[in-house]
Amino acid sequence: MRTIGIIGLGHTGILLANLLVAREAVDQLVLIDQDDQRTNAVAADLTDALPASQPQIIQQDYAALKQADIVIISAGDARKLTAGRFAELSANAEMIKTSAKRLRQSGFNGVLLNLSNPNEATTALWQQALEFSPRQVIGTGTILDTQRARLAVARQAHLHPSAVDGFIIGQHDGRLVFPWSTWNVNGQSMPAAVNGHQLDQHQLAIKSRESSWITVSGLGYDASGICFAALRTIEAVMTDSGQALPVAVYHPQFKTYLSYPVAVGRQGSGIFNLLQLLPVEEEQLAVAATAISDQVASQQ
Fold first, then answer.
1. What's the rounded mean pLDDT across residues 219-227?
2. Which stretches of 184-296 are assigned E, i.e. beta strand?
3. Which CATH class is domain 3-139?
4. Nearest in space to 257 (alpha carbons), one of 243, 267, 247, 271
5. Which of 62, 136, 144, 250 could bridge across to 132 with cysteines, CB 3.0–4.6 Å?
6. Kind and range of the H or E element at 284?
């Protein structure tokens, strides 16, 4: 039985629950939120939508998470996003202290996927609070940032996004690292000419970030992008695919969580996809790691 738990039923948690049910990707769905009425409403809405192919929905029961394959953390206050991507840190850190204790008591021992912001820092705080193996605790990291960058490259090169291959690493919506030297477009290295002209890497970085600003400033949140990043990760875990994804993961070189491509499977994070970074890119990654470490330390 495919059992998935969602803790936090804001815009992102509700949309993710809908997508999991609509895709018939779950047999038992455990919904948890600080608001009982909200949880009951989400469960009722899901049941009304797909009465014929409805998974078992369990509400407000941490004990039901004991057998869960994966628990998704989507808790947070989207209203704080307009003040900055890192404005949720203190509130989310307090939530982790409370929720992690209850999650440990449930006996849960699967994979925890964190969607909360700042993603790398709060993923680290979850791992510390749960005292799980680092490979069991991952975040959506820079999956969405990578998707935005691939779209930016494809548009500038006048190609379909499927022709673009590469990862954005570092700190989600913060100190992003654009290792263009490792990217390929139509099988060619990015520094090479594409369709007869050189791609403007500086402009690509600007365009990659622009989408986030447009979405959050207009909606106040970016639930769709994060949910589809989560779905890719959930599928990799549930199918044990070993697909390389730039998730928030503990990086032993930097002794902190940061976003970096690793194989994702049934046990969480696996083998690192070692990128051949230029010295300047290595330096940028080190700066991102320091920024994340400072965020984690500020909540301890």
1. 87
2. 184-185, 188-189, 243-251, 256-265, 268-272
3. alpha beta
4. 247
5. 136
6. helix 279-297
Q: Is the pLDDT of residue 182 over 80?
A: yes
Q: Is 0.85 surpassed by the pTM of this model?
A: yes
Which of 74, 179, 189 lies closest to 122, judged by CA? 74
Residues of the chain within CATH 3.90.110.10 domain(s) are: 143-297
Contact 31, 8 (CB under 8 A): no
H/E stretch holding 291 reads helix 279-297
Catalytic residue ranges: 172
Residue 123: how many other CB atoms lie within 10 Å: 33
Residue 187 burial by Cβ neighbours in a 10 Å radius (0-12, 13-18, 19+) = exposed
Question: What is the CATH number assigned to the segment(s) 143-297?
Answer: 3.90.110.10
pLDDT at 81: 60
CATH 3.40.50.720 domain span(s) along the chain? 3-139
Q: How far is CA 274 from CA 37, 173, 244, 271, in A?
A: 46, 22, 11, 9
Q: Which pLDDT tens digit goes with each residue over 88-114? A: 888 899 999 999 999 999 999 999 999
C-alpha span between 54 and 183 (Å, rounded): 42
Which range, of 36-50, 82-96, 132-146, averages the lowest pLDDT? Answer: 82-96
In the structure, what pLDDT confidence band is assigned to residue 191 with cuts at 50, 70 and 90? confident
Rounded Cα gap, residues 275 and 289, in angstroms: 16
**How many Cβ atoms are within 10 Å of 163's Cβ, its own excluded?**
16
